[in-house]
Amino acid sequence: MNKEVNQDAKPAYLAHIAGCGSSAPTKKLTNEDLSKMVDTSDEWITTRTGIKTRYICSDNETTALLATQASKQALDMAGLDPCELDLIIVATVTPEMVFPSTACFVQKNIEAVNAWAFDLSAACSGFIYSLSIAQQFIESGKYKNALIIGAETLSKITNWQDRGSCILFGDGAGAVVLQRNSDGKGILYSTMSSDGSNWEALSCEAYGSKYPACKKLDDPDKIYMSIKGREVYQQAVRRIVESVKHCLKKFDLTTEDLDMMISHQMNARIIESASKRLKLPKEKVFMNIAEYGNTSAASVPIAFNECYRQGKIKKGDKVIFVAFGAGLTWGATLIQF
Ligand code: COA
């Protein structure tokens, strides 16, 4: 079902990105390293996915740690005291623990004593979903400051013997500070969708209430991510194009009006194919998948942070975020930075 946000009413306030940050573990795993672990090659991975390296956590690096590092950088850029935060959302499918939420650990670590905090599970679309939730609170005038984080440690649920999936994923976190703004800049429009009937295309079945940790699994591989790569590939291209077009149309814009597209980094070929259909030139499509691989909910905010810090977007630019992932879920957010 498709959900649209902020299409007709012109709110007095917009939720504007005042700061961004990102973090990655120290260990880098190259395609060469992977070719020593499974039957694959740098050439296969590069041509099929565009990925060259990915960052992988050590045992003592966790989702809350990466999320906290990214958050501190975003707060620093915004020049905001953590005490002024009203809300913290962490989008993740690899949380610190079953409970409490990763967001509560971040709140403790940054001492955001006046914020309430929760996690959101929407896989690779989690950051887009989270932005739109915070957007509602800010546009309504209820809150001034929100911290939105995408953070994942997918390496901890990766089957390192499955060459079809282990080459794709990496760990990391990205964060933005959203702030109430009345000069017309901020989130202009968002759209989100889900299709639960297709859940089997991408999943990690254990451990939850269906397959609890206290019961022996019929298939031990249920603790790992499983993907139907080809199926996901085709759907991803279609949904990215659809979401971007939908967003632009609702705001009476064309791709020519866009300064940058920051897509979820799932496969360079998927992003290239979608950009081609959208008639977006290369210089308006940011990619860092070669270095990070697919970091799920962390992917869009890491890419946004890098794009900004490389000077490829500036204040006032129109930027679109777009993501697609497990659920299935997808969505896009149009912003004026
Ligand atoms: N190295 C070498 N060969 C590999 C391989 C690897 N790492 N992984 C798969 N292969 C083989 C397959 O076994 C298959 O061999 P066969 O033809 O002898 O059966 C062949 O390569 C083609 O496999 P296929 O799965 O059809 O490749 P593909 O071109 O579709 O690329 C993905 C596979 C996973 C890279 C691609 O489908 C993809 O990126 N999908 C979306 C990824 C995704 O789900 N991301 C998460 C959600 S956002």
What descriptors fit this protein?
single chain; 337 residues; alpha/beta; Peroxisomal Thiolase, Chain A, domain 1; 6-stranded mixed sheet; 5-stranded mixed sheet; 10 helices; 15 strands; 26% strand; globular; binds coenzyme A
Secondary-structure element order, as H and E? EEEHHEHEHEHEHEEEEHEHEHHEE
CATH architecture: 3-Layer(aba) Sandwich
Large-scale geometry: globular
- Report the biggest beta sheet as strand number plus sense, adding barrel if it closes: 6 strands, mixed
Structure description:
There is one protein chain. The protein has a single domain (1-337), classed as Peroxisomal Thiolase, Chain A, domain 1. Helices cover 31% and strands 26% of the residues. It has helices spanning 31-35, 42-49, 63-78, 102-110, 126-139, 163-166, 229-250, 268-278, 289-292, 299-309, and strands at 2-5, 14-23, 27-30, 53-56, 87-91, 116-120, 145-153, 171-181, 186-194, 202-203, 226-227, 260-263, 285-286, 318-325, 329-336. The strands form four sheets. Strands 1-9-15-14-12-13 form a six-stranded mixed beta sheet, with helices on both faces. Helix 7 (229-250) runs parallel beside helix 8 (268-278). Coenzyme A binds next to helix 2, helix 6, helix 7 and strand 14.
